[in-house]
Structures are given as C-alpha cells and as structure tokens.
Amino acid sequence: QVRLVESGGGSVESGGSLKLSCAADGDIRSTSVGWFRRLPGKALEWVSRIGVGNRPIDYAESVKGRFTISRDNAAATLYLQLNNVKTEDTAMYYCTIPHPTPVNTTSYWSRGQGTQVTVSS
What percent of the chain has pLDDT over 90? Predict the structure, then answer.
C-alpha cells in the first residue's frame, strides 16, 4: 500500500492562496489520485480527482474555479492549489488514492494523515 504524506497547510486570510503537496512513497502513475477534506464536525467530503495521464480532472462544485489539482508522477507528488479561499474552506485536507467510482466517492485505497487549512475572515 502506498503511503501518502501531506504538507503545506496553514492559516490564511479569506481571499488568499495556499498550495498543498502530497508525497507518495511509491509509484502513483497508474492510478487516479485526489483530495478529500473534512470540515469541522462534518463528514468526509470529496474535493477533486485527477486521472492517469492527467485526465479526467474533476472538482466539487464548491471549489470549482478556485482550486487546481495537479500531479508530478516523476516526483510521485500530488498538489492542490487553493486560490480565493473562503472561511468555509477551513478543513483538514487529505490526499487519497480513491476507489475508481463514482467520481465523487469518499472511499479510498489509501489516505494520508491530513494537513489543516484554516481560513480567517
């Protein structure tokens, strides 16, 4: 099982930007990877997914147009660029190797320990 380690979380003001990284300790080229988040007191929520060969790329409606997912297979690293963040983006963000279907599943083969993002107004 591939181990995933997130980094890059922190505190940011509303409207600001942050870039999350996720380092995998194995080969992720042949699998979709993605991000989930857990808002305070809420269930795990699907955020984004990127497929093999960078296609397809999907986003939850709540982050579409503001977040950008990308991957560097040579470095076995996944990224999530957060722009124009809102207070409602405050959550623990998890890097995942998700189950293949459906696109917005929160079931996964592997998940990191998470990195906290806190957005202040």
Answer: 95
